[in-house]
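Let's practice the habit of predicting before peeking. Look at the sequence and jot down your guess about where helices and strands might fall. Then scroll down.
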Amino acid sequence: MSKNAKKENKQNKQNKTKMITHLKGKLVEKNPTYVVIECSGVGYFVNISLHTLSKIGDNENIQLFTHLQIKEDAHTLFGFSEKSEREIFRLLLSVSGIGSSIARTMLSSLSPAQIRNAIAAGDVPTIQSIKGIGAKTAQRVILDLKDKILKIYDIDEVSSSPSNTNKDEALSALEVLGFVRRQSEKAVDKVLSQDSTLSVEDIIKLALKNL
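Done guessing? Here is the structure:
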């Protein structure tokens, strides 16, 4: 296949993925990993993340924004409760080594905002905390997407990580309680290495157990 033909084939696939941009209809079946939506008498099997599942609730009629993945042996439809989740999903798919299964797992483990903020902040531990994501893959995700995330969402790189702000507030509170900063920082870092999305209150509570 010539270079131009390959380019045209790739462009055609990209255009097809946008053939179905959203589905709006009756929720016929709901499971943790997929839903069936009936639209004008046609039932669509749509793969979803746990994030989208939490947003659907028990509504009889729903609308999902979609992404159609086209392969030689299958056409697979993915649905998202928010455009922002679909956007993050598509960005993740652009990373070498990240397929639809891993991307969906990421969006089932963290919210779109948490993934976005972790990438923007270069927060490898948070990305790596997702099942199936190793250190190299986490670093590749950040390397490939950080600049895009900062540009698309107009995020200030210095203040993009909520965990940094929460860490500072937790450390200040522990100092007020009389703990030495160096010891407090070790305890807080240990807590955040396990879950960087914790609130200030939870960070303090867990850190106190290690002091």
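How did you do? The mean pLDDT is 85.
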